[in-house]
Amino acid sequence: MLSTAGLLDVDDNPKSEPVQAFLEATRGEALLQLFETWKESAEFNELRQIPGLTTEGEWTNDPVHARQMILEFLSTLPGFPMDPDVNGERPWWSLDAFVEDVKQTQPDFQRPAGDYDSWYIRAGETGEFLRGFKHWDEVDGALIRFIICGPLHWLGVLDLASPRPPQAGSIPRITAFRFSQWTADILNHRAPGDFVVEDAPFTARSDARLRVPMYAPRSARYQVNRFCTWEGLQEGVYHFRLTPHSLQHASQQGLRVEQLLALLRRYCESVPPSLDTALKRWETQGSQVRIERDIVLRVRDP
C-alpha cells in the first residue's frame, strides 16, 4: 500500500521527499491519502493476501471492483453515516450475518459471469483447490472478512468488536463492526479531525535507549528511527537504541550525529550529558567509542 501511495521505491526503501510530506501532514490528511490510494489501487490485491489461502497461475481478478461492491453493500446498512436520515447513532452489525447476506443476495460480486472455476486458489493447510461455489465462504466470504477487518479498519472507516480480549500473540476473533466517527469524512473525501495532538516528548537514557510515545510527532519518530535499532513497541511506546552499527548505517545514508543531537534536544525532555558526549566522540572517533551505561559502585570506606 505504501508503494502504491508513492512512499516507497522499487526496493521498498522510503522516498525522502514524499515520506517527509506524508509524515508532516496531519493524521487525518495522511489517513485520507492512504484510503484514497487503497480504494483505487489495482496493485494492492487483497485476494492474494488472505491468510490461509495460496494463489497460483496467471488468472486475474479486479480488486478495485470488489472493494467498490463491498463499500456499496455497507452503504445499504441502516445507520450508514452518509444517509441524511441518520441521527448520529452507530449501531454494531454482525460480521457473520453481513457475509451471509452478501452470499444470499450478491454472491458473484467479484466473479465475472459467475465463474467459480478459473481461479486457482488453494487452502493453505490442506492444499485443496477451492473451486466451485461450494467454496464461496472460504474464498469470497474470506475476502469480505479480510477487507472489513483489514483495510477498512486500518484506514479508519470501521470499528471492530471481539467477544473477548485476544491473548498475547493470537489473532482476535472479530464478530461485529460499525461505522467509525471518521467514516463520513473519509467517504466524502475530507480529512477527518478529532485526533490526539502529536506533541508527546521523547525520553533519552544514558544507556543510549530512547523511548518515543505513540503521540510524538510522526516526522520526528521517523527521523530518530533512521539513527537507531528498533527494539519493539510496548504499551504505546516505541523502544529504540543507539548502537555503533545503527550510527554507522545512518552515516552511510548521509546522516550526521549533529542532526541526531538537534533532534533529541528539540523533542526530548532532556538529553543525558553522558549520551551527548558519547555521540560527539563517536562522530570523530567512530567505532572506537562504545555507547553504554556507566555503573558506579559506591562504598563508605574504599
Number of DSSP E strands = 9
Query: What structural class do the secondary elements suggest?
Result: alpha+beta
Sequence of secondary-structure elements: HHEHEHEHHEEHEEHEEHHH
- Amino- and carboxy-terminal Cα gap: 62 Å
Describe the main β-sheet briefly: 4 strands, antiparallel
Strands of the widest sheet, in order across it, are 6-7-9-8
| Mean pLDDT over the full residue set | 89
Work out the helicity level.
25-40%
Tell me the radius of gyration: 25 Å
Which spans have pLDDT < 50 for at least 5 consecutive residues?
A: 293-299
- Tell me, briefly, the overall form: elongated
Strand content: 5-15%
What's the number of helices? 11
How many structural domains can be distinguished in the coordinates?
2
